[in-house]
Known about the structure:
The structure holds two protein chains of two kinds.
Chain A: H1 2-25, H2 40-44, H3 64-73, H4 79-95, H5 99-112, H6 117-133, H7 137-150, H8 155-167, H9 171-184, H10 189-232, E1 236-238, H11 254-261, E2 276-277, E3 283-291, E4 296-304, H12 309-318, E5 335-341, E6 346-350, H13 356-361, E7 366-368, E8 373-378, H14 382-388
Chain B: H1 7-17, H2 23-36, H3 40-48, H4 50-59, H5 65-78, H6 82-90, H7 93-102, H8 109-119, H9 123-135, H10 141-149, H11 161-169, H12 173-179, H13 186-190, H14 200-213, H15 220-224, H16 230-238, H17 246-251, H18 269-282, H19 286-294, H20 297-307, H21 311-325, H22 343-357
Helix pairs in contact in B: 2-5, 4-5, 5-8, 7-8, 8-11, 11-14, 14-18, 16-18, 18-21, 20-21
Amino acid sequence: MAEKDSLAAKLDEDLNNYVDKMLEKNKNYKYAHPLSEDNWEEELENIPLFMTKCPEEVDPEKAPGVAAMQAMKFEEDDPDARALSYKDDGNEEFKKENYKKAIKVYTEGIKVNCSDTVVMSTLFANRANAHYKIGNYRTSLNDATEAKNIQPGYIKAIFRGGCACIELERYNDAINWCKEGLAHDPDQKCFQDLLKKATLKLKQYERDKRKKEAEENKMRKANDRLIEAIMSRGVSLRSIPGQVNNEEDREDNSEVDKLTALGLNNQHIPGKGQVTLDDDGVLHWPVLFVYPEYGQTDFIEAFNENLRFSDNLQVMFSSQDVPWDVDRKYRPSQLEIYFEDVEKNALVFVTQSTCLANVLSNPRYVVYGGTPSFIILVKDTPFQEQFKTKYNLDR
Amino acid sequence: MAANPPENELTDLFGYLSLDSREDVKSLALEYLLGLTGSVDGIKFIENNLKLVEKVIELTSEKSQGVQKDACVFLLNASASQIVARKLENLNTFELILPQIVDKDCIFADKAAMLLSNLTRSEQGCELCLKSVEKTPQYSLKKIFDVLCNEKYNEHVELHHLATFLSNMSRLKVVRMLVLDKVGDLMQKLSPYVGFQKSVVRRKGIVGIIRNCCFEYDCHDWLLGDNVDILPTLLLSLAGPEEFSESENDKLPMDLQYLGDDKERETDHEIRMMLIECLMMLCSTKSGRQYIQEKNAYVIIRELHKWEKDENVCKAIENLVQILIGDEPEDNMANLHEVEIPDEIKAQFEQCDEKNLE
């Protein structure tokens, strides 16, 4: 009995020693993936044995167990069966509208490169559908083409290809896809409908193209007429220095230059401060009056070239008081009109009874940036005297 | 020019032409006969010896394609004569010629098509041809229409004259009903050729077929509807380079909107006439008339009238414009083609027309 007790005590001691030894040996060991106390419930969800529902997205970092089990599923030796399995999984994801996921799975299936053409073409066609669903029409078309090449006459792929072509605005191609579909199966309503849609879209597209061309043509003609009218009057045009004419794609074309000088290039919006030609062949210029004494300006949107300066000044200065004209000096009869001859740095006098057209035809007059401008001074004032001294003398 | 042979030599000629004589002999004999078809006297001679024609018909089933071709050309030339054409209609010509049309490799299928169009100038010819076609299901009319719609069917020849032949045939109701078959899509395949720039013969034939089909008033709604949409096709050939306002453009069928200033009209006045006739007939039902009015066909026709030089076409246009912008007739006369015109008024109209022509 005592022997038995001593043996038991020895065994206990041995065990304790062993445990102590193991503890000592593994003092620094830590469990690789311990459940943390804070979110152990969540972590259990990542372990296949404990999970309560099927995972949506599998991250091999977070849930290695699930990823490993998933990989096992595709470790079939037979490539055909493996590809088929990917196809089924992809279809599941597609049904759940997880199109990006479906694309991934189909892609894995395609990578298997199995010999079963039906499975391969289905994988491509299904991936085409998934790409189409998320708006990758280009890729969708490529996949549909691939599917059709693997399995000629594959209705689903041809239909998807046609749809993708429509979205890509390649309507003639779409029509050809439809015709190909109808050649294989003339009674397919989907192709008849798609063909109708593509034909209508094509017609609309061509109509819009013709309309655009017609409009451009019209504008070009109007511009030609305008330039012709301006040139025939001998008006000199120049761009505002430093503002334009240094564009990279400047064409070597005097017409373009003239349009640029008129500020008409590209964006001709009639009546928006640009010179226009009316149906009677009369030009209407935007004109700037500058009053240097007060640093003020007046902008006349459309100055009929056949009107005199006095006509405009009458309207502007006789009917109402001008707020900045504190001394009430600016009476139509007291006003003098000048323009700058930039080359000679001269100030040229214009009588009030002159028509705009006559001034613009003057060889010394240059229209900058499409807007003729004039300087208005008041007769016999100190400012006028002083202002004129800044320029070279002109008769 | 070959002189007409005396009687005894003719008997020899028959000998040379029989199927079992040597090929080079047949060729020579045919060459001689072909020479005959170049002169009025030669044709007269053939008319008086129709047995010759019978002999040559046999040669169209000859083994050598060269002989076949010469035989076919001879028949084609000779068929310019009414008498010879009558004779040919009543022989088994159609049965021998139709297979050439559907033969992808036949080097003279175009001549065969011309011969067929010559032989179907009369309604009687059409009916006889139809009978032959019905006897041989492998050369069905549907098949011949398909050949016409497939430009690359026979790489050796252009089968534009097939359109003329089928246009002749479309005088028969059976043929029209085939073209107008809603399932067959034939009309949809034919209509793009209305603007076929490469051949006026084909255009004329196709427009002829469509014109004849317009006599089937029950089919007007279908012709004008979404499936066929014939109106833009007809109008496009009549439209010119004139510019329309935005509101005028918007009312037109989409194909007609904003045509460029390089748009050309149909150059052939007979085709223009037929196109106007098509529109005229399509206007005879109330729904058709309203549809064509809605689609702003008037502006196209108005510009055409300003441009048109041919007097007869001008008159036809004026009649059409009357319908397009005139008052709607009373309800009991809504379908113009059903309106009964009393004989005395008919006579008055005819008198007017005659006066106008003077």
